Amino acid sequence: MANTSVSLLERLQDRSRPDNESWTRMVEAYSPLIRNWLKRSGLEGQDADDVVQEVLSVVFRRLPDFQRNDQAGSFRAWLRTIAVNCLRDFWRARRRRKKAAGLGSGTDEVQEMLEQLSDPASVLSKLWDREHDRHITQYLLQLIQPEFSDKNWDAFVRVAVRGESAKDVAADLEMTLNTVYIARSRVLTRLRQEGRGIVDSEFSG
Prior knowledge:
The protein has a domain at 8-146. Helix 7 (150-161) runs antiparallel to helix 8 (166-173) and helix 8 packs across helix 9. The two termini are 23 Å apart. The protein is an all-alpha fold. The protein contains nine helices and no strands.
């Protein structure tokens, strides 16, 4: 990674230096998350692939203009809005085609889902927030793992993720207690750097 002090979001927003690798990572990170939500609306197969591609295309075009504010979760809310709009456009087009063919639209449940996702205070939007942070945090952890030794990574996972006693982990891994805390701190620092502006979680807050 060329500059570990710059987050994935910041690298993508800097169009003065094209970064295909970072965009590939964005696609890898977000495609499964978006597709999972499309599946809940009844979209699968090629239809889901098309909408995922449209969402990510809009993100790519508009990302340089995205302004992160001081409110936690501004990026995931911005992304949710784009996903809702793209999905709404898809169902509107399908409804028009069905109406032209004399068929019912059958999209009442989808419309209700879209209305809930448009409301940041709704239960469904809060579920989006939780799933977004959990999914992206796990992706970023996988991304940065090769930067650390197996022992240091194991210490981090056991203490920060599983909640094991740092003292017990230090004894089990034959590390000093201070070394365990340093390993945990270094991984969290990298996670926060890479995810800055994108994810708000128990690790990156």
